[in-house]
Amino acid sequence: MEEGTSKEPSHSCCTEEAFQWDTREDCDVRQILDRIGDKWSLLVIALLDDRSMRFTELKRTIDGISQRMLTVTLRQLERDGLVLRTVYPVVPPRVDYELTPLGVTLHDTIQSLVTWTEKHQTEIATSRARYDAAAAVPVV
Amino acid sequence: MEEGTSKEPSHSCCTEEAFQWDTREDCDVRQILDRIGDKWSLLVIALLDDRSMRFTELKRTIDGISQRMLTVTLRQLERDGLVLRTVYPVVPPRVDYELTPLGVTLHDTIQSLVTWTEKHQTEIATSRARYDAAAAVPVV
DNA sequence: CTGTATCCCATCCGATACTG
DNA sequence: CAGTATCGGATGGGATACAG
């Protein structure tokens, strides 16, 4: 194994003076958000919409993912209870992945994030270009 | 400067056989999702709700962030047009950060992600514990 | 087909010191 | 107060080879 799957987080949340939400490093929320934020998890969840997919199918669909990282990512999502892994005892082996009910609820939220991104990508690209241009040619 | 701010992405999207959405590595969507997914951006946007905050105030509020990473993160968000940086020419300097209109629209989506996480953290923690227990004590 | 194990490098990012 | 510069350790993740 590799890439620590442990490191226990604390449990209490918002114990301070009720600011907004717990921003402490070891907070559960941060632990989970870090998972969402890794390079591939969000992609996998977004792809596993209402149907199940085989390992190779996922690998083909997600451009650039290595076999290793797909395995690691799927294991983490399975551990989190977001993805269900089904092994068919045939040869050659067949393994299907699908979202659990919990995973489906997350899918919706993630989908809205993807939609937001698609919708505003032009604005962001424009903003970046303007920012870079301004930095390259100071007012003088 | 540091940590590449360039690396131009391609523009077309979903040019394949109209699968779902472009999962290619250099897609705009991926570029932006990577930003969302970095260690601190999501935190900063979530925190900058309807009010502006000073640099030090952000630093105090976000547990564990270094001065360096707060600066880097804020610069990226400014470049993306999500955060507005206002410098007051006083001494000692005062710099306020607030969400742009674009940033506000993203804030809503991100907030729903944070809410999801808060709501389901117990389920996930339980799932993880069960997974780890099963792994530690195989069926035999 | 679906993994696991190993190697190894790119980058992320924290610590620290210095500046206007 | 609000940065910037530099260094160096940790870690994410790709390439490759091997296995059930």
UniProtKB/TrEMBL annotation, chains A, B:
List the SUPFAM superfamilies: Winged helix' DNA-binding domain (SSF46785)
Question: What PROSITE patterns would the database entry show?
Answer: HTH_HXLR (PS51118)
Task: State any single GO MF term.
Answer: DNA binding
**Transcription in keyword set:** yes
UniProt key word Transcription: yes
Ranges for domain HTH hxlR-type come to: 27-125
Name of the molecule in the record: Transcriptional regulator
| Protein keywords | DNA-binding, Transcription, Transcription regulation
Please give the Gene3D superfamilies that the UniProt record associates with this protein: Winged helix-like DNA-binding domain superfamily/Winged helix DNA-binding domain
Q: Which InterPro entries match?
A: HTH_HxlR, WH-like_DNA-bd_sf, WH_DNA-bd_sf
Which species is this record about?
A: Kribbella antibiotica
The UniProt entry, under Pfam families, shows:
HxlR
